[in-house]
Amino acid sequence: MSTNFSVVGKSLPRSDARIKAVGAARYCDDIIRPGMLFGKILRSPVAHAKILNIDVSKAKALPGVKSVITADDTLKIRFGNWRLVPESQDELPLATDKVRFIGDEVAAVAAIDKDIAEEALSLIKVDYEELPGAFSVDESMAEGAPVIHEANPNNISLQRKIDYGDLDQGFADSHLILDNEFTVHATSHAYMEPCSCVAEYDHDGRLTIWTSTQTPYFVQCLLAQTLGMRENDIRVIKPFVGGGFGGKMELRKWEFCAAFMARETGRPVKFTLTRSEELTTGRRRHPMKIRSKIGFSKDGIILAKEFTAYLDGGAYNSMGPTAAFLCGNFGGMLYRHPNYRYNGYHVYTNKPPAGAMRGFGAPQALFVAETQMNMAAQELGMDPLDIRLKNAMVTGDEIPGVAKISSCGFKESLLKVAEMTNWREKRKNLKKGQGIGIGCYSFISGGVFNWFNTRYNFTRAEVRAFDDGTVHLLTMASDIGQGCDTVLRQILAEELGLEVKDIRLTAADTAVTPQADLGTWGSRVTLMAGNAVRKAAAEIKEQLFKVVSMKFDLNVIHDMACKDGRIYAKNRPDRGIDFGEAVRLAQRANRGDPIIGYGSYTPRNKGLVTPAFSFGAQVAEVEVDLETGAIEVKEMNTAHDCGTPINPMSVEGQLEGSVHMGLGYALSEQFIMKGGKTLTSTFLDYKIPCAEDMPPGKSVHIDTYEPEGPFGAKEAGEGLVSPTAPAIADAVCHATGYRCMDLPITPEKVLKGLGKL
Amino acid sequence: MSTNFSVVGKSLPRSDARIKAVGAARYCDDIIRPGMLFGKILRSPVAHAKILNIDVSKAKALPGVKSVITADDTLKIRFGNWRLVPESQDELPLATDKVRFIGDEVAAVAAIDKDIAEEALSLIKVDYEELPGAFSVDESMAEGAPVIHEANPNNISLQRKIDYGDLDQGFADSHLILDNEFTVHATSHAYMEPCSCVAEYDHDGRLTIWTSTQTPYFVQCLLAQTLGMRENDIRVIKPFVGGGFGGKMELRKWEFCAAFMARETGRPVKFTLTRSEELTTGRRRHPMKIRSKIGFSKDGIILAKEFTAYLDGGAYNSMGPTAAFLCGNFGGMLYRHPNYRYNGYHVYTNKPPAGAMRGFGAPQALFVAETQMNMAAQELGMDPLDIRLKNAMVTGDEIPGVAKISSCGFKESLLKVAEMTNWREKRKNLKKGQGIGIGCYSFISGGVFNWFNTRYNFTRAEVRAFDDGTVHLLTMASDIGQGCDTVLRQILAEELGLEVKDIRLTAADTAVTPQADLGTWGSRVTLMAGNAVRKAAAEIKEQLFKVVSMKFDLNVIHDMACKDGRIYAKNRPDRGIDFGEAVRLAQRANRGDPIIGYGSYTPRNKGLVTPAFSFGAQVAEVEVDLETGAIEVKEMNTAHDCGTPINPMSVEGQLEGSVHMGLGYALSEQFIMKGGKTLTSTFLDYKIPCAEDMPPGKSVHIDTYEPEGPFGAKEAGEGLVSPTAPAIADAVCHATGYRCMDLPITPEKVLKGLGKL
Asked: B230 CB near a chain A CB, below 8 Å?
């Protein structure tokens, strides 16, 4: 990492820190529009049924009710994020012939207040003919299972494959083969801000919708599709968003209903979900059954791996196709796999659909892969650290036909975290009940494959420079709490030699920010939008260099600098002027037109998966109460390679959040379900870790530079959600001998594993 | 006028017609922001005084009061629209040493509701030392008059001159010389929406202000100046505006106070003026005393004119400098004046400042000039029509060093209105008490002189084209009810071969619309923003022509068309594709970047005044009750030359509005004042005409084509406010023999003129 940066690499406070701290940040539910109506959704109380009849007459007659809609009022156009594969678009804005899970959206009401809307819901009479349900991949794939979507009689909606090398030969050459089955469970995004949106009609054919989303552009396109409107007659604005984690990256049915009813009634319509709706019917991380067969040479070199995942997708595809692919990708990452085969099956069940969630297939794949590495080390009598070092990917490695690793600090991360934790010593010498374990990860910096089938570059930035020394950055990139509003301003400030305070930002408004940005998911924003911002800045600089060059009559070979608020000749810093003055002159040269720069970014020549991979290793230290099975995580330490951290404090915040979410995944969070019904409907039942559950620990950043990233940056903060569960599981095994292959690691399972239950 | 237009020249309903009709259009006072405070202004109760002390302690102590400010809290930076002449900037956001009129802003309060804010005002104690006041230009210019601004000991803040030809020779050659003094009175803009603004701070150094303004860019710049902030740290957004007429084109003190207190308190702050505040303290049309000396040859040819205006500017310059210049310009317009001299004096008085108002100096100048033409006709025994036809300007005429008349339908207007009204017949044969009179006008299509000293082009447009067949027009041009949002879309639709419904518009937001547009005043928008829109459209077309040319392998000499939603070769219409498909291909050619076009406009080589002049003639028919002096306007007919009317229905609406405002100016509206206090504080006292007062009448458009205007268009709707008063005055004179030289024409004056009072 270069140390010449002025703004990049600095732990600057977020630009939204103050407004959030004083409570003045306005989220979607804070929006008040004159004459606004309040919407509520009627959801299916049964997991699988035919809809025989819906009678909304009583609801419509209730005073204060302004609109009641069912599928019959709509165009019944299917939608889904995978526009590239139209047959994957399996959702309707409102259920028509069938409901497929408890919570499936059946009707919507808009009324002058929430209570009336609730009462109206209770007046809608739906006649269901119940059907048998399937609530696990095994049940769904069993002979004679109920068919959930008629287009997929076997309940498998899609299959993804990765296959390279000679798998049979690899296994034939193997000294040790492990062949195990694992299951991983669903968890909730549990974002602090429940979903909310407000739609407003302009009485001239156009709609505006403010919504708590990660992907304004997706919402714009899919709303247009389902409403039968033109894309650009719909404007989507993302206000402050209180977390997303993958749970807010699709068109949601209440967004459709708000837009539809706003158009119908001519009045603004707001929907805000309750926490209970979120927990019982919302998207979640895919539960999976994964079979992994892996072969090693005598000295611990991976020779072959066959990885098969069955994703429990719930009632609809949602982001399952991507999770199915990425799960297989991550099953083959981190280590050199000369021969690898992956089969991923996305299976429908009568449960709330699973979707994208922080890690996006990686937490599941890496729990399995990393646990199996630990099992192999055990079998081969090796230190888990050593078996990893032997197989670890390095810069320049290639996954045939898929990706090239252009920067990799994995080995360094392994060595660093071992040093930080005194790994070798502790691994040998802890007493019974105490354990130390390791888990590793790699993650993507955005995706290459264009499943949304956008016609735009993946991201674009516009930069306007002003003679008051400020610039205005316009981008559709969406800050949902992860901090990209600050990071993009840091990148721009660095590039233009300004300070963050000099940069106004307008973001995430599909009408006025540049077309387009694919949104916040897969850790794509810093690298992709960051690159676009740099290119836009370069266009600004070129214009300013010209006028300074003219003003000082500089020889054409002069290199120019844009630094410390000045534009000057690098070798003659006295020949230069202030940034604002240079803009003023450039505007004179433009005869009054403003100074604007544009930049776009789409990954090119970067394979199928991502422009850049991050890496890291994490070590968990636990103490297990052998009488109760209770697990206390004593410490979590991490070494990771995110390229250049644009804002180290922000990276640290992300890492703390990842550990927190990883802890919940490993130990405490789970949906308790019965016949398709989610019983854990509040945060009293659905147990996310509290602040006091957070273990101490450090994270150390490995010094790498990603050539594809802005100033060398790549993913930070999403990948690290993955190693926590396998590290803890390994530490528990180290402490107790119990090897968890079925998340979460509950005290009951520990005791059972120890033969005490 | 070409008849080949598809959209231009069509009477399309306004794009905001429906939202306004259903009551869903949101004006500034409709804006609700969480935690919003309500602001009120403390105004001076005395016309001229030193401020000895202001005690706000009791107001600050009132529960619910969040901020109380006086000048001492502020930076005390003077401001005004004439940035080019800094010494003309004579206003402070809040009065410091002195107050200069009843209503001068002294302090401001922000509280949790309006009642508390009002109560807090009553708790502010201001000690004044009263000074003698001057309430007319005569009083102000008298020996020993009280000095209102120390920088101008003679109370004349500025003088404007126009001088060409040899005046003395002209008068020496004259057969008839008239030398008269006229007075014209102040009138209120009486816009339906009282001024309102909401300011909000982002807790990161930036402010947003929604305000009922004609000139978002002015507000942005002047707020920055007075707050000591950077221009681009302030965002000004114009919501729907309920009329302006020149009264909302400056930074207003409540805008400053809202912004200042929003920044101070961290909470949104709203100010909305009452109608009474508007009427008693708001801007108004300049009262003037005008002396006009004019010489004619024996056969009625104008040989010389000396025109001297004393503008009663009230306590501050406001837009007085422009009114002072334009008054002189219009004094020399309409007819050929070979020798002309103008002196305009802007005089301070202790009254609410006069500002810009529809006509901007023309209603005053033209009441005088047109009345004097009618007087001259009388003296020379000519028909008022004939004396006009003899002197009328024609296309190609030049005002030396000032302007060139590039299109002129004045003579045609005169002949047409005479024909429409059967003028010659009626002028001779009406019975006593009945009269017919004529008044004419010319007006500007925006100004050339850059008194605001912008560094930007006068206007700029951005057009984004989408593959769904829509385009998005971004412009800072401000619709304040005059209809430019529709007109600009018509111009763009015409240029791109689309329909108005295909065009989304984002306007009048200083952060996201292109830098910059000088706002809505002087009838500048259609011509200037229209030209920018056409240029932006041309950039779009060029991109689309390229891909269609490639797709059909067209010879380079092919002319291309963009019409009826298609792009095609003009001579081979089959070789073409839909607009949206062409955009899709162009975007492919751009490898994903959007299709955008830009256009700017600043008048070049168009003299000092305006790029284009409109012309017209109006005939009033009245019946005067000779016993009571009551005047009934029986009919108003108009023939006018606005170049190509982009939207004839919209032009007609403007003309009706002009007649309405002209009626009020001529007959009923006036501020009754006493010692600087405005007594007409409600619409019960200040009498604007009602719908039932509107006379019938037609308006006919003269077919001209202005080469500088978009599709031949120029000013419509502002100039026509001027001829109404002189036409009515002439008709009254025709009916009664009473020649009004002192507006308004009240029954009392008529009776006095007839010797009956």
From this structure: yes
